[in-house]
Amino acid sequence: MDYVEFEKDLIAVLLVVQSVHDKNRLLYKYEQINTDKREPEPVSFHTYYSIVIAKDFDPPSSKDEDAPRKTFRNFDDTTLSILTSPNSYGTHVEVQVDDVVFVGHTLSLENNTNLKSFAAIAKPSVILSYQEMSKRIGTAIRCEEQRANYLNEEYAKLLAVLQQYDIDAADPLNRKNEEGKAKETIEKLYVTMVQQSPLAATLKQIYTDLQASGEINIIINNWLNVSCCLPHRSIALNCPLAIDFAFKVLSNSEQYLKPYYGLLLVIDPSALLNSLPADASSTLTTLVRHLRSSYSMSRLSIETGVPLSQIYSLASHLLYWGRAKIMYPINDENIYIISPDADISKQGSLSKLYRETFQNTSNYPTLQEALAEYSDAVTFYDHLVRNDNESELQGRFQCVEWLLRHRLLTQLHYYYYLLLPNDDRNDFTNEYKLTRLPRTRTPLVRLLSELPTLSSSPMTNPLSYSSIHNSRSTDTLKTMTGTSHDDVFVAGSVNSSVVTGRGSRQILHYLPHITQALPNESTEYHRRLAFAIKDAKEQEVTDFLRIIKYLDGTYHLEEIASLENMTRLRVSTILEKFQTIVIRALHCDPNPILQI
C-alpha cells in the first residue's frame, strides 16, 4: 500500500538558544541535501500532432516540489535565528515564510535561557502532526533536565563547539585558507556537534527516522524512551479524507468506534509483536494474539476479558500508528464492491504484490480477476458457495482480507426507511428515489446506561448461512405483495377510514403505542400506520415499534441491532414482516474512521 509518508515534507530540524547574552542563536541544524538531479524523461512516442518542448523550458504553472527546500537553503544561520525568535515559551511556536513553515516548542532553562526545537516543513496541512511530536520530545527532554541537568550540559557542549568555531573563524590565517569554503566549514561544524553532543546526534536520528518511516523510537540521555509517529504518514494515498481532517479523526478515534466494528492488522501479527518495546502493555500483546477478521470489538472484549473501553483505546493506538484499520467483521452477509478509488492497473504495485502473495492459489491468479468477482452488490455468501473444498474457502477468506487491507473493496449496508401509502413526506421520497444517500442524523436522546451491556452483545458466526440470506440485488427486490420499491411512493388504493370489526379494535389498541414511539408525527400519520400494521401479531408489532425510530434512512442493520441489544437475525425478521411499508437503500457507512 502506498502511503503519504513518501511525500518528504520535513526539510530540517533546528535547535535555537535564546539567552540574555546571545539573544537568538542557531545552536544546531540538520538537513539532508539531495544532490540527485532529475533527468528529463525521454519521449516514448511521436505523432505528427506531438509538441516537443525544450528540455530547459519550465512551464510557469508546474509545481516545483523542491521549492520549499530551495527557499530554506537561502536562509543563513543569522536569518534562521531571527525567524525563530517569537516570544512564546512553553507552547507551540509556528512561523511561516513563503512556502516554509517553522514548527517548534520552547523549553525554559536556568539563568533565563530558553532552548527552542524547531522542524522546518514544507506542507502547512501537517502542522498539527509536527506540533504534537515536538511537544512529546520537548516533554521528555524537560524530564531529563529535571532529573539529570541534561539540557544545560548539552547546551554547554554545543556552545563550546560554536565558540571554538568563532575563534577559528576570527584567525586571519584560517580566514584566508577557508575563503570560498564557508559552506563546507559549516557542514564540518555540525558533524563535530553530532560527535560531541548526544542531543545533536538524537536530533539527527529524529530527522533520519522521520524521513524513512515517519516514526521515531529514541532514548533521551540513555534513560528515557520516546516513541511517537506522524500519523499522516500512515494514511493511504487513496484515502478520500483531507490530511488535516484525517489527523483530527486519528487523534480522536475512540469517539468514532462502535462495538460492532472489527480490527484488521495491515502487517503480519508476529512482526508487530516483535516490534513492540520490552515494556509494552501485556494487554496489547493479548489483543494482537486474539485478533480475528471475523471478530467484532465486543467479541474481542469477551474473548480477551479486556473491557470494551480499553479495547477502544488499544485499537485507537494501533490505528494511529498505522498498524491496523477499522472495518466490519467479515461474515457471509457482508456485501462488498470494488472501491471507487482502487488501483486496478496491471502494471501497478498492488497487482505485483497480489501475484506474489497468492501465487500458489488456484482461485484467481491476478488482482483484476479477483476484483471482477465484486462488480455486483451480492452477499459474501454468494461468493463462498462457488468453492467446493475447505482450502478454496479459506483462500477466498484470505483474499477478502487482503483486498480490504489494501482498500480495494468497499462494504455496503442496507439503510431502512418507513414509508406508508399516500406518504407525502417528500424528503424521504426524493432522498430514496434520487440520491439514496443518508441524511444528516438527528441524535437519539439515549443515556449511556441504556446502551447494551457487553455480556449480551450479539455475536455473528462467520461463514454461517442464516435465514436472513437474500442474494437478490437491490434493483430487483420486490415486496411480499409484488410491489417494487419505486411503487411504494404511489398513492395507496385502500381507504383506511373504512375499518370494521377486529381491525378497528387493533387500530385503537396500537394507536397509543405508535404515538409513544413516534411523538413528532401527526395524528393522521399515526392512524395510517396503525391501519398498515393492524393484521400483524401483537408481539411482532411490539418489536417493530421498538425499532421504528431507526427507520429514517440513517441507521443500518448492525447499528439497530447494537443499539437495541438484539441479534441481526431478529431485526431482519422484524423488518421482513413489515416490508410492505419498509424499504431499504444500499450504500456505505459514512463514518470517516472507516475511510482511513
UniProtKB/TrEMBL annotation:
Major site of localization recorded for this protein: other
Annotated GO CC locations: GATOR1 complex; lysosome
Subcellular location: Lysosome
GO term, biological process aspect, one: TORC1 signaling
This protein's record includes keyword Nucleotidyltransferase: no
Residue ranges occupied by any GATOR1 complex protein NPRL3 C-terminal HTH domain in the UniProt entry: 531-583
Keywords: Lysosome, Signal
Signal is among the record's keywords: yes
PANTHER family in alphabetical order: CGTHBA PROTEIN -14 GENE PROTEIN, GATOR COMPLEX PROTEIN NPRL3
Record-stated family: Belongs to the NPR3 family.
Function summary: As a component of the GATOR1 complex functions as an inhibitor of the amino acid-sensing branch of the TORC1 pathway.
Full protein name: GATOR complex protein NPRL3
Native species: Adineta steineri
